[in-house]
Amino acid sequence: MESRQLLIETMSELMWERGYADTSPRDVRERSGVGQGSMYHHFPTKRDLAVAALERNVADLLPAVSELDGPGDPMARIEAYLMRPRDALKGCKVGRMTQDPQVREDPVLLAPVARAFAQVHLGWVKVLRAAVAAGELRTDLDPERLAHTLMAVLQGGYVLAIAQQDPGPFDAARTGVLELLRAAAPATTDDRHKMGE
């Protein structure tokens, strides 16, 4: 791997582990084995390297989101995305950056994070609209609001898991939201008869 890519990959991992503020150029050099001259040739500042690393983290996130637009019925895609394996104790590579004050306060560093969440939101809205159109979710549900809810459940699940150092709360949150989605399916004729309609 060339030194530029090695630096980006190393910064990406360190930012995921420690955050931007707690990652120094020296940390990156020591872990990557890339010399100082080479590092500053490719990235004159820590911020330049961080932007490249954030772009990489976003690129890592988006292929998984594209699964929402893949084959199969919409609810099956939603369930597969919600339940796919994740390391809950490491958190989200992109979402973690919102907890770093230096990232939050720097529009250049925050931009890739905001853009990633906007793209994820669009993916959710699209599959939720498809689920409504397919009759898998009720028509009175707002896909825009529901997309925010699903994103908040996943991100909040990471926070709870990390706080308790236990993946259980993350798994419970995503299973719970899936149960809520199933409960939001339109009532069938049989269901209405059972309720005495």
From TrEMBL:
Record's keyword annotation contains DNA-binding: yes
Any one GO molecular-function label of the UniProt entry: DNA binding
Domain HTH tetR-type: residue ranges: 1-61
Listed InterPro entries: Homeodomain-like_sf (IPR009057), HTH_TetR (IPR001647), Tet_transcr_reg_TetR-rel_C_sf (IPR036271), TetR_C (IPR011075)
Keywords: DNA-binding, Transcription, Transcription regulation
Gene3D superfamilies assigned to the protein according to its UniProt record, in alphabetical order: Tetracycline Repressor, domain 2
Source taxon at top rank: Bacteria
SUPFAM superfamilies: Homeodomain-like, Tetracyclin repressor-like, C-terminal domain
Keyword Cell cycle: no
Entries under Pfam families matching the protein: TetR_C_13, TetR_N
DNA-binding region: 24-43
Protein name: TetR family transcriptional regulator
Organism the protein comes from: Micromonospora zingiberis
